[in-house]
Amino acid sequence: MTRKWKNSILTKLLLGMVLVLLIPFIIANAYAYQMNYAASLSKTVGENKGLLGVGLDSLEEYFQRLNQITLSVYENTTLHDLLQNGTVFTGPEQYTLRQMLSIMVSQDTSIRQAELICRNGQTITQETIGADNEKDWRNAEYHSSDVGIQAGYDGNGALSVLKYAVELTDEPSSEILVQINFYCVLDQLESIAKKVGADSDERCIVAIFIDESDRPIYVNEPMEEIEYQKYEEGYSVGQLNGMQGFFFIGYSNYSGQVLKIMKFVPQSTITEPINQMIRKTILAQGMILLFVILFVVFIYKNMIQPIKNIARNIDNVQEGKYEYQATAVTYDEIGELDRKYEEMVTTINVLINKDLKNALEISKTRLKMLQAQINPHFLNNMLQTISTQAMKAGDREASGSISKLARIFQYNMDTSTDYVPLAAELKQIRTYLDLQQSRLRERLEYTIRCEEYLDALIIPKMVIQPLVENSINHGVAKLEGAGRISIEVYRNENVTIEVIDNGCGMSEEKIRCLQEAYRTYEITPEAGHGIGFTNVLQRLDLYSQDFNWEIKSTPYVETRVILQFQIPGEDI
Question: Within 13 A of 525's CA, how many CA atoms are on the CB side?
Answer without folding.
Answer: 0
